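# nightly structure sweep
# worker-07 picked up a monomer target from the shared queue
# config: single-sequence mode, recycle default, output format = structure tokens
# input follows
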Amino acid sequence: MACFDPFGRKIEYVRLSVTDKCNLRCFYCMPEHFKDFTPPASYLTYDELTRIIAAFAELGVFRVRLTGGEPLVRKGLAGFAKQLYDIPGIEDLSLSTNGVLLEKHAEALHEAGVRRLNISFDTLRENRFRLITRRGGSLEKVLDGLQRAKEAGFAPIKLNMLVMRGVNDDEVVDVAHYCLENGFALRFIETMPVGASGQRATDHYIDLKEIRARLDEHFNLVPSIMYGGGPARYVKVEGTDVHFGFITPLSQHFCATCNRLRLTAEGTLHLCLGNTVNFELRPHLRQGLSDDGLKELIYEALKLKPLEHNFLEKPQDVERAMSLTGG
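# output follows
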């Protein structure tokens, strides 16, 4: 079986947020003193989330990414990852993290079946790290976590740099050299107006064509392809296996090839990151919905998936914080 949206796009990828809580307060993601988190009592249990992903797998989804908030702040994550890994049809299990807790959990996650990592990585400067994240953790912890992840066998390890003019765009080449030295992939991301914090961050927007031009001055880059379900367009440094990717939701959107949905910890399906359309699964699950009924609900939800985001036309529409949506 397979599931398609109204525009013929095959849905094969679910980004599953296991919590909206985070141990950092990155200024582009959530307000500094934000406290309006979902009560843990409202979270779906790991067994309920596993049941939803199993239904998706029967409909052709084979790729799952664990996200947050910061997914590593929810207890028992490695055990849950093993449950997902054991679902027939799930072939690609990955994790997005800020990296602060990665050193502690890397080995258990790899043993559970997680194979690929995406790590938020906006700067190589400790003082700037603290300015961006505003609390908790340290850059040193992130760097230690990256090395432990390499030792544990994760591959590929992708670093995600949200490029912001006047904030960290002067580090683009430095971060690229760091990734080249360590064998990490590096993806550059444009700011997106998700929530009030994201809308303010767009004051620092920079078109990634400018970043590509800067990189061309320092590296011999050739077109390439890298495994994964995301929207990045890749090049690699000639003579190496190190890739640089460009994620361009504003300057060159990729809606026509969108293959994903987002599922929150409380069972809400977000059909598009740049729209307010969603579908609640939790009430139906708690009312004794059958597995066949669950799959029918997923089909109904897919009918609501829009053709493209509204970031340019109605940037103010998406009021929820990025941490409430999932990566």
